[in-house]
From TrEMBL:
UniProt-recorded Gene Ontology molecular function terms: peroxiredoxin activity
Record domain Carboxymuconolactone decarboxylase-like: where: 12-93
Annotated organism of origin: Flavobacterium potami
Matching InterPro entries: AhpD-like (IPR029032), AhpD_core (IPR004675), CMD-like (IPR003779)
SUPFAM superfamilies: AhpD-like
Gene3D superfamilies for the chain: AhpD-like (1.20.1290.10)
Classification via Pfam families: CMD
Protein name: Carboxymuconolactone decarboxylase family protein
Superkingdom of the source species: Bacteria
Length: 144
């Protein structure tokens, strides 16, 4: 692959704005498990090897088992996730695949488990990882 633009060097203000959004997500009440499930699932859907590599390693550091990491892409058929985690994964999929819109059913299912603040933090975490995926894929970051 040919060398591509380095956003932090060319548009540091914009890159820092994205970093600040990530810092906000880090400071929220979202559990580390919820954050990593969101980051891994969105990255899988987007095909971002760089982010999948990073967030599966982070998931292990937070105590997420290998089995739960391996089964994220098939979470509907796996009995290793809580109902709350399944609601987060469903919402992550629909926000990531936004051209199909977010159904009332998926949104209301998530809303039954979480208060408005936590739900807002989930949505912002999904939006943030999707931004990172797009940046990494577009600029050619590679998993090592």
């Amino acid at each position: 692959m040919k060398s591509r633009i380095l956003i932090p060097n060319v548009a540091p203000e914009a890159y820092n704005a994205l970093l600040n959004l990530e810092k906000y997500i880090s400071s929220t009440a979202l559990t580390p498990v919820h954050k990593e499930l969101i980051k891994i699932r969105a990255s899988q859907i987007n095909g971002c090897a760089y982010c999948i590599n990073m967030h599966t390693a982070d998931a292990r550091k937070h105590g997420i088992s290998e089995q739960r990491i391996y089964l994220i892409s098939a979470w509907r058929e796996a009995d290793v996730y809580t109902e709350e985690e399944k609601a987060i994964l469903a919402l992550t999929e629909q926000v990531t695949l936004i051209s199909n819109h977010v159904s009332d059913e998926v949104y209301q299912n998530a809303a039954q488990f979480f208060d408005e603040k936590y739900l807002a933090e989930i949505i912002l975490a999904i939006i943030t990882i999707n931004s990172w995926n797009r940046l990494a894929i577009t600029t050619g970051l590679r998993a090592v």
